[in-house]
């Protein structure tokens, strides 16, 4: 163990050395064994490995006398979370699209069921937020923190929901979670909930993209509507009853790429789950936007 680099409700994260390389070690409180077990299970899912999903190395239980430590060892990314990165970094269009496209690529892989001899279930994240996405050295993202994930195998029709009672982060909860109308018997409900949260993440990223020499300071979604430690009730009032969403800055209208990003996030955070875009649709749209960005403009 070298130094502590983060902490959350589950425990602490350390940067450590393993065989000469830096790795991240997530240490769970012994009371969070359900989260540790779930996250380990998800990372060990067949065919889960993907460049935009955090690379898993090992899970371990260390006992030191009366203290039991539950560890998850993963790849280490110096830039930290997308939340950390956006606070200290402004983006050009290319960097913005790379963060967005790589994030949705990871989510798309999670959401997709792969039917083969070794089948991969469809997985919904259920706690998607900028703090649970890491930024790699090359400016691409990978999705982390799978402790609340839900698995689904279409052949059996079984939805595998974790035993732990945590339900995600209030600020990123979609209307159907806040007003308790989410259909727990239908796996698509969990997928659609992820897409709402992803719309908020797109908003966080796009605000940090400079256009016409202007950029917004980093803020969390709904920063201007609820306090930092917002209650469940306050979020429900804003999102479900008043049906408010983060505001789109005027400057985005005069930048073609930001205007498209704005349209994309609005379609992700639609009130009705059935109206939200799928991860694959967002991935294809962002790929097209990146292509247009790379095409030289003719005089």
UniProtKB/TrEMBL annotation:
InterPro entries: Kinase-like_dom_sf, Prot_kinase_dom, Protein_kinase_ATP_BS, Ser/Thr_kinase_AS, TGFB_receptor. Its cofactor is Mg(2+); Mn(2+). ATP binds at residue 26. Its main location: membrane. One of its GO terms (molecular function) is transmembrane receptor protein serine/threonine kinase activity. The keyword Transport does not apply. Its EC number is 2.7.11.30. It is found in: Membrane. It is a single-pass type I membrane protein. Belongs to the protein kinase superfamily. TKL Ser/Thr protein kinase family. TGFB receptor subfamily. This is receptor protein serine/threonine kinase. It comes from Vombatus ursinus. The lineage of its organism: Eukaryota, Metazoa, Chordata, Craniata, Vertebrata.
